[in-house]
Amino acid sequence: QVQLVESGGGLVLAGGSLRLSCAASGRTFSSYVMGWFRQTPGKEREFVAAISWGGGRTNYADSVKGRFTISRDNAKNTVYLQMNSLKPEDTAVYYCAISLPGSGRYDYWGQGTQVTVSS
After folding, report:
1. The pLDDT of residue 27
2. Over the Cα atoms of the chain, what is R_g?
3. Which of 3, 20, 88, 97 falls between 20 and 30 A from 27, CA-CA?
4. Taking a C-beta distance cutoff of 8 angstroms, is the pair 9, 20 a contact?
5. Across residues 27-56, what is the average pLDDT?
6. Residue 110 CB neighbour total at 10 angstroms
């Protein structure tokens, strides 16, 4: 089993920044993709960003390109999401997740951390 614990959420004014962290523990794997998703009440969970094992490949939702940056520290089994120029529409619960090699899906999820951006 893998446990994922997010941290770094909170309340911030529009235009501000937050940095989310997600630490993985438990079973280890040779390589895996890590991603961030977000969800607001009444809406489906949406993809935000993902990063490959080595960090050389990243992918972002169009809505966050140029504002959010995903990174990882494999020595610490931790993935980060630096969020700049935050907007009220970024308000959501943010989840990190792991996609195991070859699974084609995200297999493990964290419990989520609330991000609230006020105007």
Report:
1. 74
2. 14
3. 20
4. yes
5. 90
6. 21
